[in-house]
Specification:
The complex is a heterodimer of chains A (619) and B (351).
Chain A: E1 10-13, E2 16-24, H1 29-43, E3 46-52, E4 67-75, E5 88-91, H2 94-100, E6 109-113, H3 119-124, E7 141-145, H4 147-154, H5 162-166, H6 169-180, H7 186-195, H8 200-219, E8 225-228, E9 237-243, H9 244-259, E10 263-267, H10 274-280, E11 289-292, H11 296-308, E12 312-317, H12 319-335, E13 339-345, H13 362-367, E14 377-378, H14 385-400, E15 403-409, H15 410-414, E16 416-420, E17 466-468, H16 483-498, E18 509-510, E19 515-522, H17 526-538, E20 543-548, E21 550-552, H18 558-562, E22 565-572, H19 577-586, E23 591-594, H20 603-618
Parallel strand pairs in A: 1-8, 2-5, 5-6, 6-7, 10-11, 10-12, 12-13, 13-15, 14-15, 19-20, 19-22, 22-23
Antiparallel strand pairs in A: 2-4, 3-4, 9-16, 14-21, 18-20
Helix pairs in contact in A: 1-6, 4-8, 6-8, 7-8, 9-10, 9-14, 11-12, 17-20
Chain B: H1 12-17, H2 39-49, E1 60-64, H3 72-75, E2 79-82, H4 88-98, E3 103-109, H5 110-116, H6 118-126, E4 131-137, H7 172-178, E5 183-188, H8 192-204, E6 209-214, H9 226-229, H10 234-237, E7 238-240, E8 248-249, E9 255-260, E10 263-268, H11 290-297, E11 305-312, H12 318-333, H13 338-343, E12 348-350
Parallel strand pairs in B: 1-2, 1-3, 3-4, 4-6, 5-6, 7-11
Antiparallel strand pairs in B: 5-11, 8-9, 9-10
Chain lengths: 619, 351
């Protein structure tokens, strides 16, 4: 038994800490991680998170495929990624240890639930000897804590089974981490009361487990030190913690208000996009209409129908669902109705790895349709930016009467960061008018500036007309098989999308305006690339970072930016898709750096690759 | 069940303003079906009944899929959307959800509705989307020049089944009933008055209407339904359903349908002691569709082919249920507070 100490433990101040919680998928690791995140965010740290969970809802308990993890990095300075490697690994069982220990650097802190290291669990994790006793962990600072036993003891007297009590042990672990990093338990206690208010005994057990974990940290002599990470100096404003999917849903809600249109969302459940449906279906009091369709095709079909009726129409999916929607996306191109198609990318091909990250649908959304079928494509770079790009996608769809693809990914969707809540009054309106004048209305009479056709919704007297997937005559809009007309219409569709290049912000550069190396990225690689460029710059290297938010068309200055550097490096979580587009479009000899492991890039590997290329050039 | 089955009557003022005729619904496009096609009659009857609903032209939308039937919207002087193969019900579902004020017709065929689009038909019906789906059934793929369709007879020889189809045909009305359609009916392209009456009933029904129109393709499947639809045989080989009336048919009005155990049987009134009292009475409004399901499976030559309304019941429509949830949410907590939801409950301030 540990004795209570009279002295305050040592407090050490750190700039940044990265913790990974890992356990069985039934151990509540996502919940533990989320609660730590909220607490750190409200405290004022900059944060970045990376949930990593299996697709199986409950893989066999204790098995290797059933391990679920959540990594959070929190800092007193600005950070861009959830951290290359954890400083602290919390492993709730042998399987979690086995699958995660490889990421823990030598000297890293390892907190294990020693109670879980039974022969049976060791067998399930395919350990031939117990790593807690065989010396294999001597490179780490190991803290063996009998979490299950201590937790159960703390719940003595509660009318619960042992099994029920065991379900609360993640709160014990959380409490311990709160003590270790000087965090308040209050936000979590309030959350428990709200969440389990209807089941007082569960609420009580979770709270007891939390405080018992905290008290254990305080009283045990095992931890000599606890750590302080001060709040970060973020831009002034009101902040909240937000995931990419939350920001996406909020962005489209706000976009519908800025456009003064009813929001219609057609969707079919798919990982990792379902959360958007859950969010939007909760916005009924805003007049949002959500439709869970019978399949992906019906989801986009309904959205096109709603758009035809004058609503702001949205559908979302992931790669496999986008494949199913492709024919209808082509219809939207042909009938030139506004529509936003959200693709929350995941590892493919086929079913691939549903919960794992990849950015490999770029060429699919660019070219995965029959016929020349141009469509604008935008991609947010951070969870918070999902909000801004949702509004941007909507703006383009309405102004240009076109379907627009919005490419998010699993990392953005489930990862989170502090987000400065925008002032609604600062956001410009993006509304467009419907056609109403029968004297001037022609279904395919284009706006001379945008080349958009008029949006004439049913219910407008005198504008009765027919649209459809068959080619239509320029201006008049009746079915046409005229060869020259088809050629002209193809060129119009192409020019309309290409013309957007002058209506979007120029590509910005972080770092020198010209130099040795430009690292060009898109989507969720932003954080790793930016951090790498910061490190390289600090080392005196001539390296810049540019990040595309518009992938079709590219901003008007893209070629000029790329030609300002000797070399262009394009790191992607695919096998070189943007690379192919850049090389084909500009005949620039850019090089790729591709890693498709279902995980985001580590900063260090981009730094290494950049240094390798820089050395190549000078040698 | 407080819902009325039919569309509410338009206000007197509105009805007075909207005085349209068949011609108002004829578009400026030249009709391009094969001469002699059954689709001409369906188009004509559709245009004829349109003025009766009291909707202004701009409030009517025709949505179609792919196939010969898919061209119909181009010939209607209303709003129209010729979509992609099998997906018309999905666009109609979204349009109706966004715009409950519109009258929405879905025009489809046996291949479009029951093969590539089978899933959407089922789900639009079970949701009771307030649409009128008219399925032209010619038992063949016409636009692609003569392949077997899901309603083609078992053993039918076509370009794609030179030795005969090995697929059991699907029964459209059984599918519609199984999918919980609240209005299910059948008519025939050449039976113009009956077709008008059926379309009129479908148009007035509030909820999902499924109308199968037996239609002839004189190029690729001529005489598809001739065995029982020809003028000289139809009275003996078809059963015209009327709500509340006994199921009597035949030139001499002496044949009827009687229930024998769980099976229907054809009997002759006046023979073997059969009287009119033994004959089944049609009830299109029965809460459970047992009778309608039985009728949906009766077909020539074993039985006379039932035409008319098999089922017409009131159920809340999809668009109304969506709107009611929104209204209830607003009634409970007021109109959504955008500033509030952006903050999401837990915020902190950086000075």
């Amino acid at each position: 038994m540990t004795a209570t100490r009279d002295l305050e433990p040592d407090v050490q101040e750190l700039e940044r800490v990265t913790i990974r919680f890992a356990g069985d998928s039934g151990d509540g690791m996502q919940l533990t991680g989320t609660q730590f995140t909220r607490t750190a965010a409200v405290f004022g740290n900059d944060i970045s998170t990376l949930p990593d969970f299996p697709a199986e809802i409950r893989a066999p308990a204790g098995s290797l495929p059933g391990v679920s993890g959540f990594q959070i990095s929190f800092s007193s300075s600005t950070i861009h990624t959830p951290g290359d490697q954890p400083d602290v690994l919390v492993a709730m069982n042998p399987a979690a240890l086995k699958t995660n220990i490889g990421d823990l650097p030598a000297g890293g802190a390892l907190i294990v639930n020693s109670d879980a290291f039974t022969q049976q669990n060791l067998n399930k994790a395919a350990y031939t000897s117990n790593p807690l006793t065989d010396g294999s962990l001597k490179a780490y600072t190991v803290f063996e804590v009998p979490i299950s036993t201590l937790n159960e003891r703390s719940l003595d007297g509660l009318d619960m089974t042992s099994k029920q009590k065991d379900l609360t042990k993640n709160f014990f672990a959380l409490g311990l981490m709160f003590w270790l990093y000087e965090r308040s338990q209050e936000p979590t206690i309030a959350w428990i009361d709200q969440k389990f208010g209807a089941r007082p005994i569960v609420a009580q057990a979770n709270k007891k487990a939390l405080t018992a974990g905290y008290a254990f940290g305080e009283t045990t002599e095992a931890f000599h030190t606890h750590y302080r990470v001060k709040p970060a100096r973020l831009e002034p404003g009101t902040y909240r913690n937000i995931t990419g999917n939350e920001a996406t849903a909020l962005g489209f809600l706000v976009a519908s208000k800025l456009a003064d249109r009813e929001l219609f969302y057609g969707s079919y459940p798919i990982t990792p996009a379902s959360e958007i449906l859950h969010q939007l279906s909760g916005y009924k009091s805003f007049g949002v209409k959500t439709f869970q369709a019978e399949d992906e095709i019906a989801a986009i079909g309904a959205a096109i129908g709603a758009s035809y009726g004058g609503a702001l129409a949205l559908t979302a999916s992931s790669g496999p669902g986008i494949a199913l929607k492709s024919e209808a996306m082509g219809l939207a191109v042909m009938v030139e109705l506004p529509l936003v198609i959200v693709d929350v990318q995941r590892a493919g091909p086929s079913t691939g790895m549903p919960t794992k990250n990849e950015q490999s649908d770029l060429l699919q959304v660019m070219f995965g349709r029959n016929g020349d079928s141009p469509m604008p494509v935008v991609a947010p770079a951070t969870p918070g930016e999902c909000f801004d790009l949702a509004i941007e996608a909507t703006r383009l769809a309405l102004k240009y009467m076109t379907p627009v693809v919005y490419l998010s990914d699993a990392f953005l969707a489930t990862g989170s960061e502090p987000w400065r809540v925008p002032a609604l009054s600062s956001l410009p309106g993006i509304g467009v008018e419907n056609a109403t004048d029968p004297a001037t209305f022609r279904p395919y009479q284009r706006d001379p500036e945008t080349l958009a056709r008029p949006w004439a919704v049913p219910g407008t007297p005198g504008l009765e007309h027919r649209i459809g997937g068959l080619e239509k005559a320029d201006v008049a809009g009746y079915v046409s098989y005229d060869p020259d007309n088809h050629h002209r219409m193809q060129l119009y569709r192409q020019a309309k999308v290409a013309g957007i290049a002058t209506d979007i912000p120029p590509l910005e550069v972080f770092g020198p305006e010209r130099g040795e190396l430009l690292i060009l990225g898109w989507g969720s690689t932003y954080g790793a690339i930016r951090s790498a460029v910061e490190q390289l710059t600090a080392d005196g290297k001539s390296v810049a970072h540019a990040h595309l938010r518009h992938l079709n068309p590219f901003p008007a200055n893209t070629e000029a930016v790329l030609r300002s550097y000797r070399r262009v490096l394009i790191p992607e979580v695919n096998l070189g898709q943007l690379l192919m587009m850049i090389r084909a479009r500009f005949l620039i000899d850019a090089v790729g750096y591709d890693r498709v492991r279902g995980k985001p890039f580590r900063i260090a590997e981009i730094v290494d690759e950049a240094e390798r290329i820089l050395a190549e050039h000078t040698s | 069940m407080t819902d009325s089955i039919d569309q509410p009557p338009l206000s007197a003022a509105n009805a007075a303003v909207i005085q349209l005729t068949r011609k108002d619904f004829v578009s400026d496009q030249e009709v391009r079906w094969c001469p002699g096609c059954g689709d001409y009659s369906i188009l004509a009857q559709t245009q004829k009944v349109m003025p009766d609903f009291g909707y202004a032209r701009e409030n009517i939308v025709f949505i179609s899929g792919i196939g010969c039937s898919g061209r119909l919207p181009y010939y209607m002087n209303t709003y129209g959307f010729h979509t992609i193969h099998g997906r018309a019900p999905t666009l109609a579902t979204g349009l109706k959800a966004a715009r409950p004020d519109l009258m929405v017709w879905v025009i489809t065929g046996d291949g479009d509705a029951l093969s590539i689009g089978g899933n959407h038909v089922i789900h639009s019906m079970r949701r009771n989307v307030d649409i009128n789906l008219v399925m032209f059934n010619n038992r063949i793929y016409g636009l692609t020049k003569g392949q077997a369709s899901p309603t083609s007879e078992f053993g039918k020889r076509t370009k794609s089944t030179p030795l005969g189809s090995v697929d059991t045909p699907i029964m459209p009305l059984t599918i519609a009933l199984a999918a919980e359609a609240s209005f299910v009916a059948r008519s025939v392209d050449t039976h113009t008055e009956h077709l008008q009456g059926t379309l009129e009933r479908a148009g007035r029904h509030k909820g999902s209407s499924f109308v199968e129109v037996l239609q002839n393709c004189n190029i690729f499947n001529d005489g598809a339904w001739r065995d029982f639809t020809e003028r000289d045989v139809r009275e003996d080989r078809m059963l015209i359903l009327e709500h509340g009336k006994p199921m009597i048919f035949g030139k001499d009005r002496d044949k009827g349908i009687r229930l024998s155990g769980l099976q229907p049987e054809v009997v002759t009134i006046g023979q073997d002691g059969v009287t009119e009292a033994d004959i089944l009475v049609h009830d299109e409004q029965a809460e459970e569709p047992y009778l309608a399901l039985m009728l949906s499976r009766m077909f020539w030559p074993a039985f006379p082919v039932p035409v008319g309304v098999l089922r017409a019941v009131a159920r809340p429509t999809h668009d109304r249920l969506i709107d009611e949830q929104i209204a209830a949410a607003i009634a409970k907590s007021g109109h959504g507070d955008l500033e509030g939801i952006l903050k999401g409950g837990e915020t902190w301030t950086v000075e």
